[in-house]
Amino acid sequence: MNDCSEKCGGRYSYGLAATLSIIAGKWKPLILYFLLDGPKRYGELKRNVHGVSAKVLIQQLKELEADRVLARTDYKEVPPRVDYALTPLGRSLADKIVPLCTWGTENMAEMVNTLAERDRSL
């Protein structure tokens, strides 16, 4: 494991900690995943990310924009049109989410059972 405290400005000991601080949030990985195939409008993201509230989606989009992994383009039109797209940094991060999606798909049955057992025990 590589220590990156100097490279990360002393704030994070490992690259994983820095990465997790960017994708922390229930919906951020899904947002990044759905943006992989191109820019999306808010409504498209809302439809793709099932279960997210409008307030939380807006908050997480703002955080991803502040973290420079997502770019927001306001076209200054009537009716208003805003697109969200991955930045080059965001694309490099979102590309790493694809293997997680593949793993999840391959292990879905076991995960569903495990999560159900966990929920029953809580």
TrEMBL record:
Residues spanning the membrane: 12-36
Alphabetical list of Pfam families matching this protein: HxlR
Keywords: DNA-binding, Membrane, Transcription, Transcription regulation, Transmembrane, Transmembrane helix
UniProt cross-references to PROSITE patterns, sorted A to Z: HTH_HXLR
Domain of life where this protein originates: Bacteria
Protein name: Transcriptional regulator, HxlR family
Domain HTH hxlR-type: 8-112
InterPro entries on file: HTH_HxlR, WH-like_DNA-bd_sf, WH_DNA-bd_sf
Gene Ontology MF, one: DNA binding
